[in-house]
Amino acid sequence: MNDYVKNLIEGLKSGAVSEEEAEVMIRKAPFVDMGFAKVDMHRAVRQGTPEVIYGAGKTPEQIRSIVDAMMTRGQEHILITRIDEERAAALEDLPDFRYYPQGKIGVMGGMPEPDGLGTVLIVTAGTSDIPVAEEAAVTAEALGNRVERAYDCGVAGLHRTLSHMDQIMKASVIIAIAGMEGALASVIGGLSDCPVIAVPTSVGYGASFEGLTALLAMMNSCASGVTVVNIDNGFGAAYSASMINHMKAK
Amino acid sequence: MNDYVKNLIEGLKSGAVSEEEAEVMIRKAPFVDMGFAKVDMHRAVRQGTPEVIYGAGKTPEQIRSIVDAMMTRGQEHILITRIDEERAAALEDLPDFRYYPQGKIGVMGGMPEPDGLGTVLIVTAGTSDIPVAEEAAVTAEALGNRVERAYDCGVAGLHRTLSHMDQIMKASVIIAIAGMEGALASVIGGLSDCPVIAVPTSVGYGASFEGLTALLAMMNSCASGVTVVNIDNGFGAAYSASMINHMKAK
Amino acid sequence: MNDYVKNLIEGLKSGAVSEEEAEVMIRKAPFVDMGFAKVDMHRAVRQGTPEVIYGAGKTPEQIRSIVDAMMTRGQEHILITRIDEERAAALEDLPDFRYYPQGKIGVMGGMPEPDGLGTVLIVTAGTSDIPVAEEAAVTAEALGNRVERAYDCGVAGLHRTLSHMDQIMKASVIIAIAGMEGALASVIGGLSDCPVIAVPTSVGYGASFEGLTALLAMMNSCASGVTVVNIDNGFGAAYSASMINHMKAK
Amino acid sequence: MNDYVKNLIEGLKSGAVSEEEAEVMIRKAPFVDMGFAKVDMHRAVRQGTPEVIYGAGKTPEQIRSIVDAMMTRGQEHILITRIDEERAAALEDLPDFRYYPQGKIGVMGGMPEPDGLGTVLIVTAGTSDIPVAEEAAVTAEALGNRVERAYDCGVAGLHRTLSHMDQIMKASVIIAIAGMEGALASVIGGLSDCPVIAVPTSVGYGASFEGLTALLAMMNSCASGVTVVNIDNGFGAAYSASMINHMKAK
Amino acid sequence: MNDYVKNLIEGLKSGAVSEEEAEVMIRKAPFVDMGFAKVDMHRAVRQGTPEVIYGAGKTPEQIRSIVDAMMTRGQEHILITRIDEERAAALEDLPDFRYYPQGKIGVMGGMPEPDGLGTVLIVTAGTSDIPVAEEAAVTAEALGNRVERAYDCGVAGLHRTLSHMDQIMKASVIIAIAGMEGALASVIGGLSDCPVIAVPTSVGYGASFEGLTALLAMMNSCASGVTVVNIDNGFGAAYSASMINHMKAK
Amino acid sequence: MNDYVKNLIEGLKSGAVSEEEAEVMIRKAPFVDMGFAKVDMHRAVRQGTPEVIYGAGKTPEQIRSIVDAMMTRGQEHILITRIDEERAAALEDLPDFRYYPQGKIGVMGGMPEPDGLGTVLIVTAGTSDIPVAEEAAVTAEALGNRVERAYDCGVAGLHRTLSHMDQIMKASVIIAIAGMEGALASVIGGLSDCPVIAVPTSVGYGASFEGLTALLAMMNSCASGVTVVNIDNGFGAAYSASMINHMKAK
Amino acid sequence: MNDYVKNLIEGLKSGAVSEEEAEVMIRKAPFVDMGFAKVDMHRAVRQGTPEVIYGAGKTPEQIRSIVDAMMTRGQEHILITRIDEERAAALEDLPDFRYYPQGKIGVMGGMPEPDGLGTVLIVTAGTSDIPVAEEAAVTAEALGNRVERAYDCGVAGLHRTLSHMDQIMKASVIIAIAGMEGALASVIGGLSDCPVIAVPTSVGYGASFEGLTALLAMMNSCASGVTVVNIDNGFGAAYSASMINHMKAK
Amino acid sequence: MNDYVKNLIEGLKSGAVSEEEAEVMIRKAPFVDMGFAKVDMHRAVRQGTPEVIYGAGKTPEQIRSIVDAMMTRGQEHILITRIDEERAAALEDLPDFRYYPQGKIGVMGGMPEPDGLGTVLIVTAGTSDIPVAEEAAVTAEALGNRVERAYDCGVAGLHRTLSHMDQIMKASVIIAIAGMEGALASVIGGLSDCPVIAVPTSVGYGASFEGLTALLAMMNSCASGVTVVNIDNGFGAAYSASMINHMKAK
């Protein structure tokens, strides 16, 4: 119970706070930072969930100080996205820290045991999409999911896609990652029987317009069950996939 | 067992098909229609799932003939989206048919009992977003979900959004529907602890560019757990939400 | 004091609500509708401020029922924007109702006395911009501002702009309305010494792209003191202008 | 030999035209209409090739007068694209005229015998793409090609695409027609071994942007052998396909 | 009185200038630089207002020479925007010069006492928006405003926004700064009772399109009282905010 | 001499206006409407120049009242652009009025004798561009230019373009009008030796984007001497062409 | 015969695989990688066809390992596109390897004898388009085509285009390469009697938008027989051209 | 008389060329390079006109070799645009060569005497536009025009624009150069009585989109007599301006 709430309740009971003052304090409560942050409530439900630091544009010092603050309040699992090798090196002494260079992502506190409903399958159209895929894969693993990878499955060589049919049919959630024309999302969406999260990538040249074409194409997917996240947003896709893979009756 | 496969197996055993011919037949098998359609496999798992007819641009006669074909093969539950009142009237005599004018959607075969993990909450920013919301709501109900509606919750009157906090926290999946600047998706995404599917709508004028602004804004949502579908695609959002609300261990 | 707060306080004091329950109730308080709506607080400060109904896409019946609800809770001044003559006719019997056909706007409860710091000057580039200007003008008047109009002052005939120099120099706030290339905003911004709110309009053809060109041009205005609202948003410009024209020490 | 050339040659030989005058006449020759139009040279090679009238925006009278001019100079085969039923009715008395309402195209002079290298296969993603497909099909037939149609083969139901594998492998040229995300082009391009001409269509809604998304996606096709024509340009695709299907050693 | 005007008046009175010549001179007057610059008139009203140098693309030498010219005519307060640390170092010897590295802005002549109606509150969605915010903050301070900062208040963590409710309700003008989906503007606009100037920033990636998405979203804000300036234009927002915060009866 | 100037001069001489007052009056002079409008000065130079009314969106009554005002101050030649046949009929009784239906333009006061340096050649790519061409042609004639027309000269049939080589080489100014890919501007620009004004038209479909493609293509013309006006702006092209065709030593 | 198929056939015949198991295995066959890749089937038809490695973004090591894999399975002809000189140097020891620096393309296994129907003519508008042209030229040669080059033929100097008329009329396929306004495609399309593949290039500045303008213009070409590939995609154009140039009766 | 024509004429007269062969040769004549290049014809009319080399992307060696070729055929005046200082240094030994660093343009052969109708006035909105302006200024001078410069005349300080009124009214052609919102073109167009060529520049940030906003705004100029060239195309504007300034009766 935080101080504000404590003072209010005790004051009311002791008479130190009048009814009128109490009303004002209650009305102001939403505007005081009571620490009812979403992450906290979430953590009450499932232990071991990491907090996330978006590393882009932050110096090692800034990242370090955020990590310190999190550790101080007891957080042992931290995910740091979008950091390059150099900045990751400066974090090497963190407890149980490991850097995944392909996905440019660091994990502190080790990987949890998978506790989801099933497997998160990560499919890419080409090899150039792998950095985005690895950001997704490491994120999903850090959030407690069993992950399978099926890379370079572009639909222009349909047999490459179909050769992963078993995985596609067994997955609980699929993350479909593609640049250029983004057709992978529709084909996977049509083959699978589970939610598909499509990630357009900035891979390509010319009229790929740094992912805009893939984004628009995925938006227009004629396959049901496909939703889309921002260009190159492997983290976001994995976060949603993990939520879906941890669904339970409410 | 379909004829092609039957002929192959029997021919091989009887010698009427040589090994070489068999190889060719097996290689061609994927390109023959063996009826392994996704919908069929899906239906094996959960009875009562409707098939869907996208009604836009179809005449009542065309819709009727598709319905007839579906009924012939035993389908009792059919969802017909994007039909106006006039075309719906021509379908009134279908068994257990009901037309929902706000969502411009018709359901044949009655609504199933909800059998999902929890509730699908449908939130809109304004009253003009209701047609898209009702397309989503009726679709979700027809797919076996308990649905709650929270309309006109735009973030410019934040108390309107927050007054639905109980529903937001209890939902299994949320569909957030908004035109104009689409900020609802980020606010709901930040308040909730479950997957959020954002639907941009073509509501607005000027620089809303018929939903493009809302689409781009939702794509950029800074809240984790938000994915996006096409402009005005209430059906697609509900289809994905239903998949998520019916997740089970695999 | 609303019931939720009352129950909380009395329950705490009587012991009917435990400290633990009280904490939960206080945490939930922001998410309960406590009626702290912006409009209400606003009205506490300045009597006579109208509530606004955005009429686009609403039937006369829908508008009427919103009006009734507002009247029930004592609101005497109502602004109804974006209604055509036909729908306005259906509201003629409202108390003290007047329809302004150029701005497609209706006012119930009569116009208040101007009580702002000075004059809101509304300038348009051409005669085709007048509907947007009149939406702004009537809105500003209904919000308690003295309004001056200077129409057809396009910068291609600079003498037309300059002939309003006196008004420009005396205005408290200027609303500059223009389609096509939107240059009026920069010229007015350079000549004036007060806040300028620029409204791009969808007037024009070809590469005006229904106001996008004017919007982008106004965004890039090289004159300091210029801010921009949505295409054709005369109401929004007037609302902001009125806020500025009613500034007082805080 | 036209008059200008005849006069030049004869004048030179008779001395009526001096060398200096001849030089001037030769220099000016390209700028005189000598009737060396592409269509004419083309016709020298293959008899029976029709001339084409783009009917959009032309009155029946205008079309009739162009037809008359063509008939006067001996043209018996004429293709009239983009005419609706009403205007087509006004042309019914033309010799051997037939109107194809799905493709909104009329053919005068009957269909020629196919004389191409093989078959032009026309594939569409959905049923809404059929009007564009029929414009292509009738054009290709009128230009002397055997045409096969495979409609409603969208990749979200991959078995529908694959069930046409025989046709895909046997075709000489494929025209792949799709709106929305346009993924059909990549899948067909990957499955086939012949030139594929992709036609984006304006079918779809929301972020399909009237064909722009399909156009960009097709441009980015990761399958080799795919080229693209304008949105809804069934005629242009068929014209190119026919050229390709009539290739011969040069 | 400048020479041109002096000569005109004296010449007329002495007869050295005829009536006809006088008319010509008067007509030509607007086209002679009489030094009636806006800034000068402005300065007559409020002493201490700085002149502004837009530093982008200027060498230290160019900036120095503009500063010298301004100092020569008595200007003691100068604001230099968009200069990096290196160029700022070259200006260190200016009287009472201070460089603010976060906002990349330098101030010569010290900060004035705040003399506005109230406080300018500067709110950002994230920490990456701080450079734009500091450009705004230092500008507002240099223009005589009391400034409060509330950074990292993004709406995905609504409690972070709401925890600044006191500041939001007490502010005279709010500058809301956000990249990505720009939802902050609508939320702040809905919570506050004062003019809100929204600044889209180029923060983000993928479909943020370097601020375009935030710009369009802010344009479409459903909250009244919100106007928008150019992407990253912290200076412009502060300039307008200062104008508003210095409003007085006219 | 207008009253303002007269009062100033006489007041100064009589002493009724002090030197200080005079200075203020002179400073304000540019901001008083002294009637130095461009059109008027222009008319001083060349008699018979018409004034122009942009008819789009104006009722016959509005046009009539503008015409009356112009006639009252002696204007005999008036050009009314963008009026349809119906509105033109309502103006039939104007003196010497003629309506040109193809260009949707009306001329009052008859056509002047051509007095330019040479010929304005108007070239179109197709027959659908003719309405824009006729707006240009009639405008140019009304402004005193000899006009030649070369319609349907699209570069896909290059001989059609080249057959007008004589006209192209003899023209003083060329207006090149084309929709779709707008290639005509570059070809004409390369063939001619005079200024070329390119007019993109909204003719086309699909990726022509209502003239945007032609506009951008013309902007990028690799031929020197080509400048561009707005989509479908035949009037603007002719106005500029007429200025160029009436150049004289200054 | 691969193992999967072999096991199926032999198992069925021996009784080790039941009919039910056989059906399942046949149904799964398409989803097992049977090596029916397009390239392989293609190679059955024409010996010597190279496989292609898209080199962009690959390290020399990655390229080397793909090459090794290809060589292992007997491929002697390999095309490596989009590699710079430095990476090419690391491949110099490959058998019969040659690097073409202008097109940034390497060929292993030597050039085949041309065996197409005729000549592939590659035309560029300017000299800056040559890198794209050389990517196309070397690709076409490596795929067995006789290639002619006609560079710097921009239509603004039409005589430059026309001076290649002989080549244009004799070509079997033409690749027309241009940036800026892309008019070359229409002019070549109008002059030639064979399929034209247009390649927009990112050459230009300002409103060329890195090839978008050329792409859109080429899409709108008014000449029949023109199809388009992605910006700067010389390889894709050549691949399609080679397919067309190797057409035979099917 | 060139060889082709000579052979044709002599052959015809001598009988070495048959009538049939002659017809073919005459028909092909337009497609043979007869050297009727535009520049050459132009030069016949006015001596001293320079040829132009577009230097962007060319090495000093390439430029040198083009210069040599031009000098060989007697050209003494050459303009080299878009070369940086370094490449210019390598050309210093050319006869009478001078490099203008602001406009990044070099002139060989000295500047001609101005021989146009009047003055070309070059106006810029800001100082950042000067590089484009100097490209225009040096080009215009090299083409034989008297040039006046009026820089930093942006319309946000209208007195700065108006202070150049004398120059504006006396100019024969005006080149108006501006980035950001491009309003200068409309204001100048409204003030002047001569052709105005507008040049959008890529100056600005945020929603200036590297000149696109200025381009669109200038396209929509409400002032008659304004035409537009590509972003940053100072050369093109000057070339057109020079053509206009050298108009004569034809």
Your description of this structure?
- Eight copies of one chain form a homooctamer.
- Chain A is of the alpha/beta class and 250 residues long.
- The first copy, chain A, is 40% helix and 16% strand.
- The first copy, chain A, contains eleven helices and nine strands.
- Chain A has helices at residues 3-14, 19-28, 38-45, 60-72, 85-89, 130-142, 158-162, 165-170, 184-191, 212-219, 234-245, and strands at 51-54, 78-81, 97-100, 105-108, 119-124, 146-150, 173-178, 196-200, 226-228.
- Chain A has a five-stranded parallel sheet, with helices on both faces. In chain A, strands 1-2-4-3 form a four-stranded mixed sheet, with helices on both faces.
- In chain A, helix 6 packs parallel to helix 11.
- Chain A is globular, with a radius of gyration of 22 Å.
- The model of chain A is unreliable at 30-47 (pLDDT under 50).
- At the A-B interface, helix 3, strand 9 and helix 11 of A face helix 3, strand 9 and helix 11 of B.
Query: Oligomeric status of the shown chains?
Result: homooctamer
* Low confidence ranges of chain A: 30-47
Order of helices and strands of chain A: HHHEHEHEEEHEHHEHEHEH
Can you tell me the overall shape of chain A?
Answer: globular
Spatial order of strands in the largest sheet of chain A: 6-5-7-8-9
Portion of residues within helices of chain A: 40-55%
Strand content of the residues of chain A, in percent? 15-25%
